[in-house]
Every structure is written in structure tokens, then in C-alpha cells.
Write a structure and sequence with these properties.
twelve-stranded antiparallel beta barrel, four-stranded antiparallel beta sheet, 2 helices
Length: 397
């Protein structure tokens, strides 16, 4: 009997010991569950932060390159694989595609990046006009003076520009040009005899300073184009048309190298990537500030001059043929309002102008930091210059 009681007491002790062990294990399991729950919550929080950071980066990030300054890799890269038509390419490919589009229509310079952009520009303008002053008695028989006018105007401009990315959304730039101009005007009059007269004028001096700021409005996500707001000011730092010397007949003896008026323009540019091209368009309004001249030129008092404002629109596309070479085509049109001039006791108004130009350009990446850009403009209206050619060599620091 005593032996049985001892065995029961031993089993009770073992059961109590196992119960204590089970309670301890249960407490450990509960503690581990709390730790796992905490780790799960921490993981979710970190994933949420990562997602928020990516969305913020997508919102803040520009397309990483300014106009005329490609950041393409030399040679093929991983993102050169074909993509479905209509999908936006990666930023690096977009950069290659917009490298050749006209100045001021690309996306912004990256934050903290400085680009020095030397350029040389040549513009050619010519006009031919035949005027008859008299009376035509019968067809082919004219009494009066026939005057033929042939004008050729050439200008060569060297400029040094700088662009800097203040933030991922704001870029500032400035450009100072030096201008050389030459005009050759030949006039032939025929009445009883032929009289020919040729005039050659030249002028060279600093041109008008150009200061601008650009702001990227959105990131171009979800199928939207990238919109960039532009603000530009041009103070009259060059020699204006009323600053040159005139003879007693009011004929200029020198040529102007600047407009002579303050100009302020505002506009918006849209860039839409659609692999393998980039479509661009812009709309700008230029306001020229009126000015009191208060000078007498050729016995004619010149008072207030209100130069005509202008409205401009551009549309085109850029296409990357490979990681180093791209080209662009487009059209630009400007409507220039009439100029009001206070001459003597009368106010004279000029005609409005329609300036249409076909645009063409190409870009070739020379190295990691240097790109060669060449842009052309060909006039398609009578008021437009015949041609304009610009060679730029932007250097990225």
C-alpha cells in the first residue's frame, strides 16, 4: 500500500512538472507571436515608405536632360531593347530622342548640373522688288520710272550660353551674343537712262542679353505629356535701331545689333514621348515694351515707338536613330502685330508680319560630356528670313 502511494505521488510530481513546462512553452510561443507580429508590421511600414519614396521620385524627377544635350550611353545599353509602340521609353532613351529638337523645347537640366553652350549662328535674308511709278497707256507701253531693288542681308552671331538646374523642376539660363551684320542694297532706276546705286552697311557689337527660367509642371506619367513653363526677358543691351548714326536725309549709316526695346515672353512647351520618337510643341507670347525715343532723325521728330508684340507656335518631332545620333523636323509660325510710330504730328502703323519657318536639326554625341548640335530654319513666307543655321557644342559639367 505504501509502495502504491509513493508511485502515485511520483506521478503527480511528474505531471506538475510537465504542466509547468507546458506553461513555460506557451509563454515562449506567445512572446514569439508578438515578435513576429511586430516584425510583420515593421515590414509593411518599410514597404509603404519605399512605395511612397518611389512615387515621390517619379513625381520630382525630370527627364534628366536639357534640350540639345543628350545623356546617351556610348554604345548599346540594356534599355535599347524594342518597346511596344505608344509606350513611353525610359528616361535615358527619352534623353537621346530629344537631343536634336530646337533650343528651349527640351526637358530640364538635372539639379546641380551646369551646361556651357557656345554657339555660332548665320542668318540670310534677301528680297527683290520691282516698282513702276507712272502710267501705262496700253499694255507694254509705260510712261514713268521703273525701279528695281535687290537687298541681301547677312548676320553672323557668336553666343555663349549657360544653363543650370536649380532643382529637379527649375532651370535658369543666360546668353550673351556678339553680332556682326552686313547689308547690301542695290537699286536700279530706269527712265530716259539707267541709274544704278549700291549701298553697303556694316555693324558689329554686343547684342541683347537673354535671361530665362523654365519650370517643369508635371512628370509626364499615366500617358500625359511633360509640360514646361517658360519665362524669358531680353534687356536692350545691344545697339538699337535708334542708337546708330544717321545722315541728314534720315538714312542709317550703321546697322543695329539689338532690338532697342525690352522684351518679355511667356509660354508653355509640351513634350510627349512615344517610342521611338518624341513629339514637341510650344506656344509663346512676346511683349515688347514701348519706348519714348524723343529724337529728330532727318528733320523728322520721332516720339513714342510701340513695337509690335508677337504670338508664336511650334510643332514637330525628334527621332533617335541610335544611342548617339538623333534628328528632328518641325514647323514654327509667328504672327507679329503692327508697330505704331509717333513721327511728327502723325502716328504711323506698319503692316503685320507672318513669319513661317520649317525646322530641321540633328545631334551627335561626341563623348560623355560633349554633344554636337546643328539646327536649320528655312523661311516659307515672304516675311521670314531665307535661312538660319545654328551650330552648338554644349558641354556638361
Amino acid at each position: 500500500m505504501a509502495n502504491i502511494e509513493a508511485q502515485l505521488a511520483d506521478q503527480n510530481r511528474r505531471l506538475a512538472d510537465q504542466e509547468r513546462r507546458l506553461q513555460t512553452q506557451e509563454q515562449i510561443i506567445q512572446a514569439q507571436a508578438v515578435q513576429l507580429n511586430g516584425l510583420h508590421n515593421e515590414r509593411e511600414r518599410l514597404l509603404s515608405d519605399i512605395r511612397a519614396g518611389r512615387e515621390l521620385a517619379e513625381t520630382e524627377r525630370p527627364l534628366t536632360v536639357a534640350s540639345n544635350a543628350s545623356v546617351a550611353q556610348v554604345g548599346p545599353t540594356a534599355d535599347d531593347s524594342p518597346q511596344p509602340v505608344g509606350e513611353a521609353p525610359p528616361p535615358e532613351r527619352r534623353a537621346r530622342e530629344v537631343a536634336a529638337i530646337p533650343e528651349g523645347m527640351g526637358v530640364l537640366t538635372p539639379r546641380g548640373t551646369l551646361i556651357i553652350d557656345p554657339s555660332i549662328e548665320y542668318t540670310r535674308t534677301s528680297s527683290n522688288r520691282l516698282v513702276f511709278r507712272g502710267v501705262e497707256i496700253v499694255p507694254g507701253i509705260q510712261l514713268g520710272v521703273i525701279e528695281a531693288n535687290d537687298a541681301d542681308r547677312d548676320s553672323l552671331t557668336g553666343a555663349l550660353s549657360a544653363r543650370f538646374g536649380l532643382t529637379n523642376r527649375i532651370e535658369v539660363s543666360a546668353s550673351i551674343p556678339y553680332v556682326y551684320r552686313q547689308d547690301r542694297v542695290t537699286t536700279v532706276q530706269q527712265r530716259d537712262e539707267t541709274v544704278a546705286r549700291a549701298i553697303k552697311l556694316e555693324g558689329q557689337e554686343w547684342g541683347d542679353l537673354d535671361v530665362s527660367a523654365r519650370y517643369q509642371i508635371n512628370a509626364g506619367l499615366r500617358g500625359w505629356p511633360v509640360f514646361v513653363a517658360n519665362l524669358r526677358a531680353k534687356p536692350p543691351t545691344g545697339v538699337g535701331p535708334f542708337d546708330v548714326n544717321y545722315d541728314e536725309f534720315g538714312v542709317a549709316k550703321d546697322l543695329a545689333t539689338g532690338s532697342g526695346f525690352w522684351g518679355v515672353s511667356a509660354g508653355v512647351t509640351a513634350i510627349y514621348p512615344t517610342d521611338p520618337a518624341v513629339i514637341f510643341g510650344s506656344f509663346d507670347y512676346l511683349y515688347n515694351v514701348p519706348k519714348d525715343i524723343n529724337k529728330t532723325i532727318g528733320n523728322v521728330p520721332v516720339g513714342s515707338i510701340d513695337p509690335g508684340d508677337s504670338i508664336s507656335a511650334t510643332l514637330g518631332f525628334g527621332l533617335a536613330l541610335n544611342p548617339r545620333f538623333s534628328f528632328s523636323l518641325g514647323y514654327s509660325h509667328s504672327y507679329i502685330f503692327p508697330t505704331d510710330s509717333d513721327l511728327g504730328n502723325t502716328v504711323q502703323r506698319s503692316n503685320s508680319l507672318q513669319v513661317g519657318r520649317m525646322l530641321m536639326g540633328w545631334s551627335f554625341r561626341l563623348s560623355e560630356r560633349v554633344t554636337l548640335n546643328n539646327n536649320f530654319e528655312f523661311g516659307v513666307t515672304s516675311d521670314a528670313p531665307d535661312m538660319r543655321m545654328v551650330v552648338r557644342v554644349p558641354y556638361r559639367f
